[in-house]
């Protein structure tokens, strides 16, 4: 009997939670001709706006904290189990034709903005990798981030327009002090610097970009590279560490 009662209680609680999410969605600013595949998770007391002809696939998770704003343009696609959580008092403003791939996660702890036609593919993880840090993410129009890419936002990351970042890339904005022999190398004090990727750059798959790097306009980073220093515009670099291969004529 105890098992049966537990089963009934679980399903009642689950139903109540889903009804709560539906209520929160109904209180959001949802545009016309929006497709919603339930269940969709909608938490928080902040403002969520979604433009016309957008789609929320099942188990999409939208959390917007107190006095926070998530404003998404029209023709957006949130694939299955994708997540955006905007912390209280912060905002994420996104242009039209946005795509967030299945199981991708964005945790917003400052004020971010994305242009139009930004695509973030499956299983990307975009947030500060250390607690208490609140880097900002800015992405220009028509930029694309490939599957399984990690963007660390201990410090700011600015990605220009028409940028392509391949799958399985890692952008790290922080490192650790490791000179104190009494402390594990990875537990030392945090040192952070921003990353900037300028318009039209192309980052190949499995590339790692380290703190403080600026990738110039239309630069190309070969697959598998580790970029430790800034890269000039109109150049091709590759290797570990990445070095100049040639200039684009």
From TrEMBL:
What molecular function does GO assign, one term?
O-acyltransferase activity
Organism domain of life? Bacteria
For this UniProt record, give its keywords in alphabetical order, as a comma-separated list. Answer: Acyltransferase, Repeat, Transferase
Which CDD domains does the entry mention?
LbH_MAT_like
Say if the entry is tagged with keyword Endoplasmic reticulum. no
Query: What does the similarity note say?
Result: Belongs to the transferase hexapeptide repeat family.
Q: What is this protein called?
A: Acetyltransferase-like isoleucine patch superfamily enzyme
Protein's organism: Formosa algae
């Amino acid at each position: 009997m105890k098992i049966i009662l537990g089963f009934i209680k679980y399903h009642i609680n689950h139903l109540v939670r889903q009804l709560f999410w539906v209520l929160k969605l109904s209180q959001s600013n949802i545009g016309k001709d929006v497709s919603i595949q339930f269940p969709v998770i909608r938490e928080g007391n902040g403002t969520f706006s979604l433009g016309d002809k957008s789609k929320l696939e099942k188990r999409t998770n939208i959390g917007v904290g107190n006095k926070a704003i998530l404003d998404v343009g029209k023709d957006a696609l949130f694939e299955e189990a994708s997540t955006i959580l905007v912390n209280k008092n912060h905002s994420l403003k996104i242009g039209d034709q946005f795509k967030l791939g299945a199981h991708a996660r964005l945790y917003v702890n400052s004020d971010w903005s994305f242009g139009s036609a930004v695509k973030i593919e499956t299983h990307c993880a975009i947030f500060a990798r250390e607690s208490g840090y609140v880097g900002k993410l800015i992405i220009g129009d028509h930029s694309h981030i490939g599957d399984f890419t990690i963007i660390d936002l201990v410090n700011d990351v600015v990605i220009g327009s028409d940028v392509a970042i391949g799958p399985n890339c890692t952008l790290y904005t922080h490192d650790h002090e490791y000179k104190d022999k009494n402390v594990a190398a990875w537990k030392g004090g945090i040192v952070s610097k921003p990353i900037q990727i300028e318009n039209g750059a192309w980052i190949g798959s499995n590339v790692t970009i380290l703190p403080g790097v600026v990738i110039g306009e239309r630069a190309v980073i070969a697959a598998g590279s580790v970029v430790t220093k800034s890269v000039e515009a109109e150049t091709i670099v590759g290797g570990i560490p990445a070095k100049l291969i040639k200039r684009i004529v």
